[in-house]
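Q: I have 96 residues here and want to know how they pack in 3D. Can you give me a structure?
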Amino acid sequence: MDKTIYLINLYDYYGDLLTDKQKDYFKDYYFDNLTLSEISENKNVSRNAAHKQIKDAENKLLHFEEILSQYKKALKIKEIIKKIDPKIKKQIEELL
């Protein structure tokens, strides 16, 4: 899986556990597709500072997944759901 997509998926699960600053930088980079130069200019910080915030956020997301495995478990659940009765499948998907 592409690293960017993987990190965005992890953000969906663990984004609320990041600091507001980390969320802001992460969103600018991954969701708004801003470059480090654009982020650093918008926030009046160095490119290194912007890069550090993004890397810190990425590392935290990876760490949370390593410990909690919520994303990995969700993928397994989705695979199991594909194999069951369509009515039950719909009910379970609504809960997820």
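Q: Anything worth noting?
A: The radius of gyration is 17 Å. The domain at 3-69 is CATH 1.10.10.10 (Arc Repressor Mutant, subunit A).
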